[in-house]
Amino acid sequence: MESKQKAIGNKNKIEKGQILKVSKMKPVIKPTKPHRHEGYHELIYLSKGAGQHTVGDQVYEVLPPMGFYLNLGQVHCWNFSRIPEGYVVLFKEEVLSGYPKALARLFGMNETFRLSEEDPSVMQLLDIFYADYQREEPLEVLAAQLNSLIYKTIQLPQNRKRVPPTLLDEFVRFKKLVRQNYLQLKTAEAYAKIMHISSRKLNHICQAATGSNAVDVIRECVLIESKNLLTHTGLQVTEIAYQLNFSDASNFVKFFKAQTTLTPTEYRAKL
After folding, report:
1. Domain for residue 103, yes or no?
2. From residue 87, how far is each of 43, 67, 149 by CA, in Å?
3. In terms of CB atoms within 10 Å, which end of the chain has fewer, N or C?
4. Confidence at 1, pLDDT banded by 50, 70, 90
5. Which candidate, 110, 7, 89, 77, places its Cα nearest to that of 46?
6. Is the dihedral of CA 92, 93, 98, 102 positive or negative?
7. Cβ contacts of residue 204 below 8 Å, gap of 6+?
8. Per residue in 40-49, pLDDT tens?
9. Do 26 and 104 fall within a single domain?
């Protein structure tokens, strides 16, 4: 692991003050280093290309037509073997301030999804979206198109999840709080108090949205960051434990093994 960087890099593809960007995939096959995009969501739609896309510790084969959804702060990298074609849509949550339901639907979206070869409507919508973005149409127009794109993507068969909208809204709020506070707050009760609901209600919301309870969602957030640091950095286990706010390395090792059946060192060695 000596060649790994000491920290996961950040890439900011949105200029300061920008809240939405629609671009075409770069026609290159050079592998990218693991990185994360802080502060904005990313939707990727590929019509051509081949290779691999690594998100966290999950490796996906690039088999267009297909797409990917990256939530805030997810670590990913590309290794294309064939030049990709398609679109990338980057956006901050504020662009959907007039469409709160669309924002909630994002958290019900899978990391990867298939596009229909028989129904080209998603790519046609993207063609118009990109053209309007290039023409610098008003943000209200572009936000409406993003709203339509999200709903169109959610309607793809493997993205459909039958979760009541009100529960999904509350789950979105909970996930946002977890992302912001998972290093300090570790219990369902702590988040339920902030949300002014009972921990029982919070667990019901999480069960409806994901099939897991609130503590599982919190642990998953810690586990994902643990895997990111083990996979994409050269930090020692003790350094990672400190960074994730564990009292000591042994507690971190116990946590990681309970979630994965492997110690952090064993997990890193398997990579």
Report:
1. yes
2. 8, 9, 12
3. C
4. very low
5. 89
6. positive
7. 167
8. 899 999 999 9
9. yes
Amino acid occupying residue 257: K
- The single residue listed with the structure tokens 């286990």 is 237
Residue showing tokens 């063609």: 127
What's the CA gap between 237 and 254, in Å, rounded? 12
A 10 A CB-CB count for 105 gives 24
Q: How far is Cα 12 from Cα 235, in angstroms, rounded to an integer?
A: 23
Domain encompassing residue 46: 9-159
Whether 24 and 144 share a structural domain: yes
Asked whether residue 14 is domain-assigned, the answer is: yes
pTM, two decimal places? 0.67
d(CA 99, CA 93) in angstroms, rounded, equals 10
Q: Are residues 56 and 152 in the same domain?
A: yes
For the chain, the straight-line distance linking the first and the last C-alpha, in angstroms and rounded, comes to 10
Pair (31, 123) in one structural domain:
yes
Residues 6+ apart with CB under 8 A from 236: none
| Cis amide bond preceding 65, omega within 30 | yes
Cβ 7 vs Cβ 236: under 8 Å: no
Asked whether residue 171 carries a pLDDT value surpassing 90, the answer given is no
